[in-house]
Amino acid sequence: MTVVSSTHATALAQLGHALSDGTRTRILLALRENPARPSDLAEQLGVSRQSMSNQLACLRGCGLVETTPQGRSTWYRLADPRIGSALGDLLDLVVQVDPNCCSPEGCACR
């Protein structure tokens, strides 16, 4: 079993913060498939380029995505392929959890 340090807890909190926003979650899920340019992600997810820029800056700040400049474009990808695997595991887990558990009507967290 891994010894959990405050660094581990901080990293998980950053991931939780990233996943707390639907757009950021959708960006991470999209980047599981392939690297993408911000304009392509904005179009794919149906958000403004400004919103995409803000969300990508947040994800970069959390260390979850990285950039690769290519000519006049910048490509975004997951900072570590294990992030994609972890998201897949979380998706599998969510399928087993009551999908209404955190709906506004039934959430015990609020």
TrEMBL record:
Record flagged with keyword Amino-acid biosynthesis: no
Entry GO MF terms: cadmium ion sensor activity; DNA binding; DNA-binding transcription factor activity; lead ion binding
Keyword DNA-binding attached: yes
PROSITE patterns per the UniProt record, alphabetical: HTH_ARSR_2 (PS50987)
All copies of domain HTH arsR-type, residue ranges: 4-98
Pfam families documented for this protein: HTH_5
Annotated SUPFAM superfamilies: Winged helix' DNA-binding domain
Keywords carried by this UniProt record: DNA-binding
Superkingdom field: Bacteria
GO term, biological process aspect, one: response to lead ion
InterPro entries documented for this protein: ArsR-like_HTH (IPR011991), HTH_ArsR_DNA-bd_dom (IPR001845), HTH_Metal-responsive_Reg (IPR052543), WH-like_DNA-bd_sf (IPR036388), WH_DNA-bd_sf (IPR036390)
NCBIfam families: HTH_metalloreg
The protein's name in its UniProt record: DNA-binding transcriptional ArsR family regulator
Organism expressing this protein natively: Citricoccus muralis
